[in-house]
Amino acid sequence: MNHGRRDVLGAAGGFCVAALAGCLDEPAGDEDAPDDDLYASFFTLAEFTAAVAGDGTTVENAVPDGEHGHGWEPPSTLVPEISEADAFVYLDAEGFQHWVDDAVPELEDESDLALIDALAGIDLLEYDDDHDHGHGHGEDDRVEELAVGELILLEGNEAVAYAHGDHWHDDPLSIPLEDSRSVTVVAETDDGEELEFGETYALAVRTADGHGDDALVYEVEGDAIAFEGFEDEFTELVVQVLEDDDVVWEAPPLETEVGEHEHGHGDHDHDNGHNHSHGEYDAKFFSDPALAQRGVENVRDGLIAIDPDNEATYEENAAGYLEELTALHEEYQERLSDRTHDAVVLAGHDSFQYLGERYGFEIHTPVGLSPDAAPSSEEIADTVAFLEERGIEYVLWDYFDGDRLAETIAEEADTVEDTLMVSPAESTIDDWQEAGYGDYLGQMREINLPAFETALGAE
User: Fold this and answer.
1) Of 235, 257, 258, 339, which residue is least crowded by CB atoms under 10 Å?
2) Are 255 and 172 within 8 A, CB to CB?
């Protein structure tokens, strides 16, 4: 399915290109000019942008090193800083970076700011049951041993949100910052029988998508849930029904916002068929070095559109980086082609769907899409069985997820010899920088390629 997109916006009215000499330098003598000429919404796009713009350009990565591109929430000062730049490079993939979803409508009003969508023209892969092995977010992935037809959150006598099937109505749920809000839960089975909480059944709540774990706390008592907000950000919550301490039903993830947001999360229309990091489409196309080339071309075309006088510079810079990506792609092809296995196990959420799709191997994960989702004992057992059935000797783990789950699985599987670290290449750390492979190309070549080569038995 084609990605809905804004190709290049801005560069209108009084936008000045006189200072753009292939490096977007600060105009001489202009003390009020911004320190950063270009902004990118996370590490990988900053890498692509810097490569195309050239050595003299300042490209600011909005997300601090060591933070996931899709799980970080910005300070209130970030969007005003971006509005002072010449261009903002981002992914028009709703749900991938929630703060970007909110910022773009505001930034569109800045006549001197160009918005460059690095996803333009890229067909995104869908998340599906075959790929996620039944462990992602979605109707088929939720626990439904009990037939709950409808679940309603009430504040007083007013319904603030209600769920049936695989979606919520009237979301997001708003939680005040540094204050509390309580709701009463009413649930009915498909037969219209109301569940009594506190006797046979009990309520529980968990965080669904991980990036808002510290945003709020919640306490369940009987049929009531009390929330208290601590950080101004978005998260997703899952309401569960328990019987004898076992989860027998859970609601779909409920979009939840802590604090007040000018562009509400509910405005994003999560069922509109656009691209969702934790929904129907996977925005992490850059795990495929061949497809990453299209993202670089989009950045190149965007910079040319706002600075046509330096088209030759951007063309030349982009061509050099595209050659490096082509060489990386060919190296992956060569080193992964003759292999023992056609599957790997990744003990973390799957950031490598495009990599597996490109080079023809399966990625099995017990976690699915959420960075911090905790797999059940059954899902871990299924993964152990998968390893033993396939004779797989290594378990991969994402540095930004940690190795605890990988170690647990490795201890249980008789075939596993060791665990291997990989990086989603959407952030970096000081140690990798000091070692000389902290950039996108370095991580893909020096961290990921050897790990996948070993895990696939291609050495």
Assistant:
1) 339
2) yes
